[in-house]
Amino acid sequence: MKNWLFLILTIVVFSCGKKDETTNNQLVSDPDNGGITLPEGFSALVVAEETGRGRHIAVNTNGDIYVSLRDHSENKGIACLRDTTGNGRADIIKYAGEHTGTGIKLHKGFLYFGSDTAVVRYPLQADELLPANNWEMIARGFPQERQHEAKPMEFDGQGNMYVTVGAPANACMEQMRTKGSPGMDPCPILEYAGGIWKFKDDVLNQYQLTDGERYATGIRHAVANSWNKQVNELYVVQHGRDQLSQFFPEMFDDQQNAELPAEEFFLVTEGADFGWPYCYYDPFQEKKVLAPEYGGDGIISERCENKTDPIMAFPGHIGPNDLLFYTGDMFPEKYHNGAFIALHGSWNRAPEPQSGYFVVFVPFDGAYPSGDWEIFADGFAGVETISSTRDAEYRPCGLTQGPDGSLYVVDSNKGKVWRIMYS
Amino acid sequence: MKFYSIFFILLVFLLSACGGRNQSSQQQTQPQTPVASAEKSAEMANHPGKKVYQSFCLACHMADGTGVPGMHPPLIQTDWVTGDKERLIDITLNGMSGKIEVNGETYNSIMPPHSHLSDKQIADVLTYIRKSFGNDASEITVTEVQKVRNK
């Protein structure tokens, strides 16, 4: 009898402990891939279930992970994760840094951080998980914004830093988001926002308008940005304008409102103008059209003909929030130098069902896509139909590549972190 | 006998420790709608405020009033909606910006003014949101809207 009981006890202990086995230095994916679906051959493990209100993510060469937070956790704005056992799961989660925000990148021994009004950097300390508290100011003087305020930054490896300054507006109307209010012409916002500003990556206390240079304009907001090292160019993905049917019900119905305009993927060359707020991209007519606030009827282009087109158009409102060019060796050939994009998921398709809430892949050949986009990771929302944004359990918001070529994804609801691998 | 008791306690402990993590990860964060309020919400299906809501509010606050995390606050079970009428009318007429906390979450966004709506439209839509989505607060009258507009 006793032997029988011990057998049960052993089975229970064994099956319980199996998932948390940590001593064999092997990365074992979760049987359900942490609740997400992936192409064949790929699998995922959950690095951390909760880290806070996650935005973007960075991984150091030693595997330490840093997540920028939208709101403070334990009065800090950076979640710092370390795996001390080699099973890929963070067993230490600590918090550092006083700023909250979106941009987070490791560069020149510092942790650069984009708060909503400044870019600062925290010094990393040898072998320490937590960055030091004595942060330095890199770029400041950004406008106080209450929409599109995220400040992601990127580096070109040639001493420059690029910061998105989103436009605090929908379509630069005289009265913000008010039906019947015309667009301001010229739009004064473009002088200080609605574009990409270029700074030195290693100079302290640069002011946006005096020390920074407007690198490109006509970008409503681009949380997703990445330097493509193969072709040495900056790429961003724009959040397109909202509320066409709400402000112009005689021109657009709710279904058109959900599908228009496209979320645009830009190759950002110096001096480029992508057209916001005067123009938006209609993926069905495959052209930029004049916005109705500026006299457009949904068809005519006029001044939009000489604006720079996107290199790819995604469905409307799906919220591109991070972009990563894959440079690792772990994934198969087709993924090399291609782009992963995290689609945070829409809110502005209502009353139509929402869309997005997945990670897509875009194959590249040189500077341009070599094929159509495809869904790479899905199932974050946990439900089939998403009517309201809050129906989604998780929302992919940030991406990064680990030293071994794994792809990390962070969610914005709870800061859940997945590590996606190929074998 | 003592041995078996210890064994069973251990077994129960281990099983519960095993299952505990899954349970907590499945917790729903959405507020539950009480049955009585759900009936109240059904009554509101033909309320004139619903049409105003669909035209001017739904895009941001969603059909079910849950809002958008981090952007647009929910209209459910919050004092901002079911509390002080004057404050609610004022926000609707004149808009609002800055940091607010709703149901434990921080929002730092902008709501545009809606003074272009008539007093009747505002009274209707505010009555609608105060009695929908599980809310059960008193109605707002045209006179109450007029009073705030003329201040």
What does this protein structure show overall?
The complex is a heterodimer of chains A (423) and B (151). Chain A is mainly beta. Chain A has helices at residues 2-18, 244-247, 254-259, and strands at 42-48, 54-59, 65-73, 76-82, 92-96, 101-107, 110-115, 119-123, 136-140, 153-155, 160-165, 195-200, 206-207, 213-217, 224-228, 233-237, 263-268, 279-282, 287-290, 312-314, 320-325, 339-343, 358-362, 364-365, 368-369, 374-377, 396-401, 407-411, 417-422. In chain A, strands 6-7-8-9-13 form a 5-stranded mixed beta sheet, with no helix packed on it. A 4-stranded antiparallel beta sheet of chain A has the order 1-29-28-27, with no helix packed on it. In chain A, strands 2-3-4-5 form a 4-stranded antiparallel beta sheet, with no helix packed on it. The relative contact order of chain A is 0.13. By secondary structure, chain B is mainly α. Chain B has helices at 2-25, 35-43, 48-56, 58-61, 79-82, 85-94, 119-130, 142-149; strands spanning 96-102, 105-111. Chain A binds chain B through residues 2, 5, 8-9, 12-13, 15-16, 49, 53, 70-71, 146-147, 175-180, 242-243, 246, 249, 347-348, 350-351, 387-391, 412-413, and chain B through 3-4, 7, 10-11, 14-15, 17-18, 25, 30, 54-56, 58-60, 62-64, 66-72, 74, 97-98, 106, 108-110, 112-113, 116.
Give the number of helices of chain B.
Answer: 8
Distance N terminus to C terminus of chain B? 80 Å
H/E series of chain B: HHHHHHEEHH
Average pLDDT taken over every residue of chain B: 80
The residue ranges of chain A in which pLDDT falls below 50 over 5 or more consecutive positions are: 9-24
Whole-angstrom Rg of chain B: 22 Å
How does the overall form of chain B come out from the CA principal axes? globular
Q: Could you state the oligomeric state of the chains shown?
A: heterodimer
Low-confidence stretches of chain B: 10-35
- Supply the helix-strand structural class of chain A: mainly beta
**β-strand amount of chain A:** 25-35%
**Helical content of chain A, roughly?**
under 10%
* Annotation field: number of helices of chain A: 3
**Strand coverage percent of chain B:** 5-15%
Which class do the helix and strand fractions of chain B yield?
Answer: mainly alpha
Question: How many beta-strand segments of chain B?
Answer: 2
Strand order of the largest sheet of chain B: 1-2
Radius of gyration of chain A: 22 Å
Q: For the residues shown, what is the average pLDDT of chain A?
A: 93
Please tell me what the overall shape of chain A is: globular
Biggest interface between chains? A-B, 35 and 37 residues
